[in-house]
User: Fold this.
Amino acid sequence: MSAYAHPDVLVATDWVAEHHTETEDIRIVESNEDVLLYDTGHIPNAVHIDWTNDLQQEDVRDFITADQFAALCASKGISNDTTVVFYGDKNNWWACYAFWVFKLYGHEHAVLMDGGRKKWIAEDRPLTKETPSFPEATYEAPAGPDLSIRAFRDEVLSHQDAGGPLVDVRSPEEFRGEKLHIPGYPQEGSLRGGHIPGARNVPWSEAAAADGTFKSREELEELYLQNEGLSPDTETIAYCRIGERSSHTWFVLKYLLGFENVRNYDGSWTEWGNLVGMPIEKGDAAPVER
Assistant:
């Protein structure tokens, strides 16, 4: 991990195994695509954050407010100084999403368990069905979200119009406009298929190794810099269907490769593909100009 730009945001399963009982200053958080998975067994002392019910407002398509975020943290026994360790299924796909929301609200001490549930289980480490209970903490709400890591549609349109780099992290079938969701999932969520003109297609899962951990920095640099011509010094926007897969790529670009200005467009294709008058391309991306 030491070769990454910011290796301090990753911890190994060995570290979690040694520290998961230290519940005063550390909180383990499981966040999955499958919201029922936590109840089948989780790391001892891990709490559950449901991306739908816990991180989203019910009546507005947006994340919870700063006060709601503070209340959520307090209810999980998380204070402003708590080190929050995220992990989950699908190579930490949704764990990265929860991590991104915590960073959106400025939580300083947040890390990711490299390899997620997949690696923890493969190593035959303990799981429990017991839901832990912690005393309610005190959490001071931030003044507002850190919008430097979030992109909105008008900003994306301006970025695209100016020729700024965009990374579409969906499957090639979605990128080409053949499908509206990941193959094997219900094909719903947008009226048009395709991608934002000029976007590069780098499926999020290509950043993960077979055991669920992140690939080496050298491999990631080949994937994003050499193959796609991206630069850590250039403002970059990542997107997918609803912003969850792109949060994984956002994490890779920002923390593992040291991109100085990378944002996640969480409106993503369910917004762009439904908006009147927005430009759309279909088919494969044009070759990168060297």
Summary: The chain has a mean pLDDT of 95. The first strand starts at residue 10 and ends at 11.
